[in-house]
Design goal:
By secondary structure, the chain is α/β, with parallel strands linked by helices. The protein has two domains: 218 residues, Rossmann fold (3-Layer(aba) Sandwich); 166 residues, Rossmann fold (3-Layer(aba) Sandwich), CATH 3.40.50. The protein has 14 helices and 14 strands. Strands 7, 8, 9, 10, 11, 12, 13 and 14 form an eight-stranded mixed β-sheet that branches. Strands 2-3-1-4-5-6 form a six-stranded mixed β-sheet. The longest helix is centred in the last third of the chain and has 20 residues. The relative contact order is 0.15.
Length: 406
């Protein structure tokens, strides 16, 4: 490295407050090393409302990593301090403010994109790293202290779009349904980017009310209108999660749709399949098996790699259920913090940990190996999953790899 480049690099490190890491030591004012000093990590998740189930998965994933590693990150005993995320910018900002007063070394969690946008400036100004394990909108850019172990919301749609461009006829009509939200717009934009080429096109997206517990018939009118058109859809692409996903799928079949459903994997994550499965010989199970539901996601509990065998086995043993992508991303958030804090050594500071996050390299994850890209999101594989019987239960079964994005 030239002397000028070296000087510039040291200036940048100093600007980030990371000279301690650059020097490769962590000590007190007397020069005495203090490895293993206790640290606090702040976990921001919803304790109620429509996103509580995802918040619980995120908390479970992070706690699982700690339990498998003697409640330590990077050799330091950890106290995990939880704050209520809420559903808007104000509640998210209050959570960040409380955790900063607690003296946390880093933050993690965050389910809602609205909350993520709401806390962005507070996190950047505090210069405390946030390892987001779910919310990841396209427009969250040019951040220094926000990293994400999940995905960018456009990516599952883009991965499916590439796949369908290869497998569907150019004249195929695809109907698009989604809840009215910023997340849905990102997902559909990714699908459009991956699928639309030449003569290929998708229908005008039909946005439905974004309701946490939609009642019977909420989607029926919109579905009926699309199915009644002259050019009936050959396929449906949609974006729903949780209870809304269950209601949409049921109402789509009730209105007479007979074709495949494609979606980001959130459509069938968590408890959704259990609520859709009406047992052996059930009409709904028969429709799902006959007409096919395929999803794209960065994780599936049946992936065959050593890291997933450890993670999925421990998760099932602890929580008596199959792990989701939400739990996996939070487990990985703990894993990247473990690596970064270990690089810093004794007496880590938030700024030192933030710099170290850019140096941790490849992560041996339950999803398969991945690493952070320049925008601080994962460069990772996406998988095609099909809902089918696995034993006596409906499950998400990996069919193939779709693409590497990021």
């Amino acid at each position: 490295m030239s002397q000028m480049n070296r000087r510039r690099a040291l200036q940048l490190l100093a600007a980030l407050g990371t000279t301690g890491l650059a020097a490769g030591c962590g000590s007190d004012s007397n020069g005495t090393s203090k490895p293993g000093s206790p640290i606090k990590i702040g976990l921001i998740v919803p304790g109620g409302g429509p996103n509580k189930a995802i918040g619980d998965e995120i908390a479970n994933g992070f706690q699982l990593f700690l339990s498998l590693n003697e409640q330590q990150l990077g050799g330091h005993p950890v106290t995990l301090v939880t704050a209520e995320e809420g559903e808007d910018a104000k509640s998210g900002q209050a959570a960040v403010a409380r955790l900063l007063k607690e003296g946390v070394l880093a933050l993690t969690g965050v389910v809602s994109s609205t909350v993520m946008f709401g806390i962005r400036d507070a996190v950047e100004q505090a210069r405390v790293p946030l390892i987001g394990s779910n919310a990841s909108p396209i427009s969250l850019q040019s951040v220094v202290y926000i990293w994400r172990t999940s995905y960018v919301l456009s990516e599952p749609g883009e991965a499916l779009g590439h796949y369908l461009r290869k497998t569907l006829d150019e004249s195929s009509v695809i109907a698009v349904f989604a809840a009215q939200s910023r997340s849905s717009q990102d997902v559909i934009e990714g699908f459009r980017r991956g699928y639309v080429r030449g003569l290929r096109k998708i229908g005008t997206p039909v946005y439905t009310p974004d309701l946490p517990n939609p009642g019977k018939g909420v989607y029926a009118t919109a579905i009926r209108k699309v199915l009644g058109k002259r050019d009936k859809p050959d396929a449906v692409f949609c974006h729903y999660t949780g209870t809304a996903a269950v209601s949409f799928i049921k109402q789509l079949y009730d209105e007479g749709y007979q074709g495949p459903i494609y979606a980001p994997g959130f459509l069938t994550e968590g408890a959704v399949l259990g609520q859709l499965d009406d047992g052996e010989g059930g009409d709904l199970r028969r429709q799902i098996e006959r007409y096919r539901i395929e999803t794209a996601l960065n994780y599936s509990a049946d992936l065959n790699n050593s890291a997933n065998r450890v993670f999925a086995t421990a998760y099932r043993k602890t929580h008596h259920t199959t792990p989701t992508t939400y739990a996996m991303a939070s487990y990985d958030a703990a894993q990247v913090l473990d690596k970064a804090i270990r690089l810093v050594g004794a007496d880590p500071t938030p700024q030192q940990v933030n710099l170290a996050l850019g140096k941790i390299g490849q992560i041996d994850s339950p999803r398969g190996a991945w690493q952070f890209n320049q925008p601080r999101t994962p460069q990772q594989k996406w998988y095609l999953r099909r809902v089918q019987l696995d034993g006596r239960m409906l499950s998400n079964v990996v069919v193939s790899e779709l693409a590497t994005l990021g």
